[in-house]
Amino acid sequence: MTIAAIEDTLRDVLIEDLFVELDKDQILPGSSLRCDVGLDSLGFVELREQIAQRFGIVISDDDFTPENFATLSSLSSLIAQRCEASAR
Fold this sequence. Notes:
Layout: H1 3-17, H2 41-55, H3 72-87
């Protein structure tokens, strides 16, 4: 799965499952998930669960960090790495 496809799926999750009130084109790769998108701590936990369901991967406690969940881009990179690792 490409980074662009992962980002697009994450946009869907944010809007459809987490009820973020933004249009898809307003959520940019560099958008801060906390400041620009408006996620709070509960939102990040729910996002982690949705990632597990949509991508079939587990985000470990070690990877559930502010750095990895800072932007759409950083989160997409983490998901790509975990998907690649689980495919091996």
